[in-house]
């Protein structure tokens, strides 16, 4: 198994592997992987990750799905040592508050979603209602709308 690991490494990781195994030939696969993780693994301080998570907002050109993916990555780093249910509560609330459209985010929070997926579905419902209300979306076409189509749309607020 160790031999296959050697073949999959490149650059500095390959050099590090050679140094570690040259000194001690009897290292197990698990020991080598642990040493590689210590040397090259994720090193950001938990406090820094939490600050990045807390300050994150959706960028202007970022779709809802892209924002959710980026936000979940930040959350995983910020809460890597905490229980999943605590992380989930924080993620849903902060995801909604980080949306570009603050009104939509507040409306979705008031729906009390239990997950990011529920929050995104709530956003889709709001988008359809907004489009129908503005007469930009014929009610007869509602049955043909997919979540992915809605998430790619850009809605501009009615100036009235």
UniProtKB/TrEMBL annotation:
Residues 7-100 form the Retrotransposon gag domain. Pfam families: Retrotrans_gag (PF03732). InterPro entries: Retrotrans_gag_dom. This is Retrotransposon gag domain-containing protein. It comes from the Eukaryota.
